[in-house]
Design a protein that fits this description.
Blueprint: H1 4-11, H2 15-26, H3 33-56, E1 67-70, H4 89-98, E2 102-105, H5 123-138, E3 142-146, H6 151-155, H7 157-174, E4 182-185, H8 196-211, E5 219-222, H9 224-227, H10 229-234, E6 243-249, H11 253-256, H12 276-296, E7 300-305, H13 313-329, E8 333-336, E9 346-347, E10 352-353, H14 355-362
Parallel strand pairs: 1-2, 1-8, 2-3, 3-4, 4-5, 5-6, 6-7, 7-8
Antiparallel strand pairs: 9-10
Helix pairs in contact: 3-12, 7-8, 12-13, 13-14
Bound molecules: alpha-D-glucopyranose (GLC).
Amino acid sequence: MIDPNSLIRRLGVDPVALLLSNTLMGKLYDRSVRVVLAFALTLAVSAACVSDLGSVAYKPLVSPVQRCMNLSGALEGPSEGEWGYTVRMSDIDKIADAGFDTIRLPVRWSAHAGKSGRYELDSDMLARTDEIIDYALAKDMNVILNVHHYYQIHHNPSKHERRLEGIWNQLAAHYAAYPDTLIFEVLNEPHTKMTVERTDALNKRIVANIRKTQTDRWILLATAEWGSLPGLIESQPPQDPRIMLSWHYYDPFSFTHQGAEFFKPTPPIGAQWGNEDDLARMTADFRAAAAFRDTHGMPLLLGEFGVFDAASVEERVKWISTVRHLSEANQFGWCHWGFSSNFQAYDPEKEAWIEPIRAALLGD
Ligand code: GLC
């Protein structure tokens, strides 16, 4: 029998309040009380398992990142603005004022670095990232700076790994004096030929290079297989007190990417999510991620999760809210994908948060 108070302590949330607020907030579980009860039961079982693991290996893990927003679709494009979004400093104000503690800044450095020699980074691009980072840090936010959309490395690592190391040598030197609220993320979603082994080895080399000049910098490591759970649990991360691991969650893909034309074949619009099986599967995934985290003793960040805009807001809210609460129950920081480009939380035409999405991320 699970004692509700100890359950609340272990989860860090009251599952009943959580369910109630979900129900009121977005009419999430309007279909049936059965689903709500199934979810409560699943969370309770999940909490019990977290605790079982805890008695063996778990020690409290402190991640500097709790609630984060991806500033997606701007510097990750071939050039900023090409995908319709240019970062405005007022966006950072809005994100900070809403209650997020971190922005993740995806940057396509491979489009702004030389092809040989020291792979010199474009000074204009560095000045632009400085501007965004300086602004966010001055607002007491953390910034995660990454290398995003380096397509070539995933298909031809033997040609491109050295270039990624060169890019990081320069970024590490450029930002060496920055406070440790600037976090480096080595490579977004390694995949294809960036296998688990190859990603582990590359991560180790780049961490060692960064550590030559900065021992306190948090380094975020994405794992292979697109940062997914299977890639995460096979990885062998280097031991270091200031490494965080990252995973991304978009399951079921046919639900989260419905209508996403950038993916072929595009999953059809209309998929729904939230039955008992869906909840059980998601809860088991989060439990597996937490078990891996507990074994390795380093913080785990859910670096991306979100639902494409073609799904109804109600469906998006249901999934996003559940992922967010499961993350927090398992003590993962999280980072929503995205802000106002696609997978929107903010409507750039109305210049306003999409209120149900904001509430799903930051409400009770
Ligand atoms: C990954 C991709 C990004 C995409 C997102 C959702 O981060 O790099 O471009 O929008 O996943 O599919």
